[in-house]
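User: Structure please.
Assistant: Input sequence and predicted structure:
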Amino acid sequence: MNSQFDLNKRPLVVIWEATQACDLACYHCRASAQPKRHPQELTTEESEALLRDVAELNPPIFIITGGDPLKRYDIYHLVRYADALGLHPAMTPSATPLLTKTAIGELKKAGLSRLAVSLDGSHADLHDGFRGVRGSFERTLNALRWSNEEHLPIQVNTTISKRNLKDLDNMAELLKHFRLVLWSIFFLVPTGRGQIDDLPSGEEFEEVFKKLHRFSEDMPFRIKTTEAQHYRRFVIQQRLQARKEKAQPFTPGSEKLFPGLLPINDGKGFIFVSHKGEVFPSGFLPLCAGNIHFQTLTDIYQNAPLLKALRDPDNLHGKCRDCEYKNICGGSRARAYATTGDLFGQEPCCTYQPQQNAQETAEEVVKVS
């Protein structure tokens, strides 16, 4: 994303939930997915209209998710249609018997730019326990192998909860054996089937951040986080520590000094379209901003009061409001809402205490340099 990219005008990422149907029973599923397709799911023609709408908005990243997109009989057609519109679609299918080597090959032929599969443990007992179906672990590894054989770019998505905190090093070792472009780490939001008892503490978040930062320096693939906006604060702190001899402190407005850290948040550079055409700030924040049956996606993203409010850091409450990192972080709006009911409440899993003001932050960094 270059400096001319205006997050108020268009998002970096559009995700379309093509269906909520799925044959897995993941304990943390944000959609509480069921095996059968919903009768109000967008038809093929309505889906094509949505794809044209997305193309008008022109996001750099477009992802087809679910449920399991492979539950739709027309999914290969829709991938071809999206590719013809220049959307370079990615997809997150579920690791079920529908995800065959043939299916992966057909998706690539249809124009899929990237496949993403979920892996939540380094061994079958742990991963299959997450997914609620035995055999999911082996199918996921097969999908990785087949994608590598097809030369289809592939990423792994992992949801972090108390159940797999101690398995991250083992997972990193396992993933080294595959050609990945990205390891995307999702931090649990207790919504859908996700339970608050499985939510790591702020201290546990910080420990995971340390691991991810180390992995990012050692692994042959990129690492990013979802719903852990305060990982950016952690990364900046590490970079400041490395640069302290140059006296380059972080102050509000100096975000451009830290390339690669994007201020994406729910509704800010990110938008989610449900299987029924509802538009949400993200799949983890169940507050509707509009519906593509009545408005264009561009109009909703640019003008919906909910989304405009989410893009204004001055609306934040608690310590997030006072934090010098609020423009680059802002905390997970989805997690704040899920745990407190306050859309603008402070990030509940952040241990950082803001400085009294930016000048003190700058002076402190200079002092230790």
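Residues 18 and 275 are 5 Å apart (CA to CA).
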